[in-house]
Design goal:
Layout: E1 14-15, E2 37-43, E3 48-54, E4 58-61, E5 64-67, E6 76-78, H1 83-97, H2 120-124, H3 157-171, H4 175-184, E7 193-194, H5 210-218, H6 246-251, E8 261-264, H7 265-276, H8 287-294, E9 307-312, E10 317-324, E11 329-334, E12 339-345, H9 357-372
Parallel strand pairs: 1-3
Antiparallel strand pairs: 2-3, 2-12, 4-5, 6-8, 7-8, 9-10, 10-11, 11-12
Helix pairs in contact: 1-3, 1-4
């Protein structure tokens, strides 16, 4: 399930669940209904905070959303497309550093059945020309490219499905084991793993599979030649402790290059801090390779795997590297600046249109900009 496209120490004050955090869960008529629960965590050299509000699970009584277990800073979250960077992109930084993968090699070097004319770099830049989305649980074979490879950016889940397979071929390991050995283990991310949360405190991801069913039946945002009746394995109950993304869950057992990771805000902060201090981790990757992944590509807001965001601070504007996820998580870091940012929510637990993940993220960036002007 893809969107259409789309330090400081631990002494910062925390806002517990239920405390007032002005506007934290607000959506607004134009933006959509706010998430049931939300955690926002910021670490910078000048200030930091963790805010937590709302509920990690909900139920409906007579059509009304009723909160149950509160959201906490330690809640496990379905990362959705944040998996693309925490797992796949970071694994590739290591594999490129070790000479096991070449960015400019044709993907067919690793996956002989892949379409010709597409490089590993193209897929990381979302310039592989592939379809943005395709229900692999209905037809497992990827369709021919939708666009001319290498010429335009078209955000694609399918490209990262292939990149996850490249990681498997290069390591000789299943993707979940490869990511554990290359990324989560070395970085000490003990609460980050594929397919299911590492603990019982988990945020509900979605009400059921209704969003993906509607994508098929409406043909929006991608006009694939299938309907929901073509698949019989839909989840009709709340999705909790399973990845919401249909391709990751129904087609890949919860383990894919584009989605499937669960993690916590503390783990994600640790990841972002490590990427910000990438030079200090030269036992894991070559710093010059990391810098190549961080650099802007032909599309200014896209690096190799990472999205790029402008963050105005008091005296300068810095570039945040990160990625959003459809369920409601976003991460970001600023290389060499000891800045780590995490947002985690369950925005799909609504009756109407949910607030976009990007709206929640840009609200956080705005708040950081305003705070920077007061220190």
């Amino acid at each position: 399930m893809t969107a259409p496209d789309g330090g400081a120490g631990d002494t910062a004050p925390d806002h517990g669940a239920g405390e007032s955090a002005p506007g934290l869960l607000a959506g607004g008529q134009s933006a959509g209904e706010g998430p049931a629960g939300l955690v926002r965590a910021v670490r910078t050299p000048w200030f930091g905070w963790t805010e937590c509000a709302g509920h990690r699970t909900v139920r409906w009584e007579d059509g009304v959303r009723v909160g149950e277990e509160p959201m906490t800073a330690g809640t496990h979250h379905d990362l959705a497309s944040v998996t693309k960077v925490v797992a796949t992109t970071t694994a590739l930084i290591r594999l490129v550093s070790d000479g096991l993968v070449s960015l400019d090699a044709p993907v067919r070097t690793y996956l002989p059945d892949c379409h010709d004319g597409i490089s590993v770099r193209d897929l990381l830049l979302h310039r592989g020309g592939l379809w943005e989305w395709w229900p692999l649980y209905i037809r497992p074979e990827q369709p021919p490219p939708r666009y001319r490879p290498g010429h335009e950016r078209h955000y694609s889940d399918l490209g990262f499905v292939l990149l996850g397979q490249v990681v498997e071929v290069a390591t000789g390991l299943p993707l979940d084991r490869a990511v554990a050995e290359l990324v989560t283990g070395p970085l000490g991310l003990r609460s980050t793993r594929y397919a299911r949360p590492a603990g019982p405190d988990v945020a509900m991801s979605a009400r059921d599979d209704r969003i993906e069913m509607d994508m098929l039946d409406s043909g929006r945002p991608y006009p694939v030649p299938f309907r929901s009746a073509d698949f019989t394995g839909w989840r009709r109950e709340p999705v909790s402790g399973q990845v919401a993304d249909g391709n990751a869950h129904h087609a890949s057992g919860g383990v894919s290059g584009h989605a499937g990771l669960f993690s916590t805000v503390p783990d994600l902060l640790r990841y972002c801090a490590a990427l910000s201090a990438y030079r200090e981790h030269d036992r894991l990757w070559r710093p010059e390779v990391a810098r190549e992944f961080f650099a802007p590509g032909p599309d200014a807001q896209q690096a190799l795997g990472f999205r790029r965001y402008a963050l105005p601070l008091r005296d300068e504007t810095v570039t945040v590297l990160g990625h959003p996820g459809f369920v409601g998580c976003v991460i970001g870091f600023v290389p060499d600046r000891d800045i780590a940012l995490v947002l985690a929510g369950n925005r799909l637990l609504t009756d109407g249109p949910p607030v976009p993940t990007d709206t929640l993220w840009h609200d956080l960036l705005h708040d950081i900009t305003e705070r920077s002007r007061t220190v």
